[in-house]
Amino acid sequence: MLNLRQFALFENNDFLILNKPSGIAVHSGSSLFTGHSLIKQKSLIDFLRINQTEKKSKIFLAHRLDCETSGCILFVKSVNAFTSLHTIKNIYYCIVFGLFKKSVIINVPVKDKNLYFFLTKTIIIPVKYIRNKYTLLKIIPLTGRKHQIRTHL
Hints:
Blueprint: E1 8-11, E2 15-20, E3 31-33, E4 38-40, H1 44-50, E5 60-61, E6 71-76, H2 79-84, E7 92-97, E8 104-106, E9 110-111, E10 117-118, E11 122-130, E12 134-141, H3 148-152
């Protein structure tokens, strides 16, 4: 059984922030490919719901990170707190290989699993150069589609 306490960065009555390591799925329905077959794996949200002390409360996922991605993930522990999240703007930081010279707004359609295209918009801002080889980027998705940032990079 996964001990989520080792990943906890902050918790109060409304929110839980975990430092998610790579290799762990965030939401249910994720599968793990082992080379020959797909295996259903427990996700962070599954573990949180199983270990809930107060069964009346519901835990919501505020956003997603891919299984391979590490980083902070926000879970919401009350309906009121969840509805207050509509005022929050998502900002991501990532390190990429190469020197990203100027800020850009990318306006490129992203295809979903049903092969439908959705208009998407992302702002990408170079923040810092590292060892003259890498760039720390600030990424602000103005729309929210699955794999939008990955597609735009």
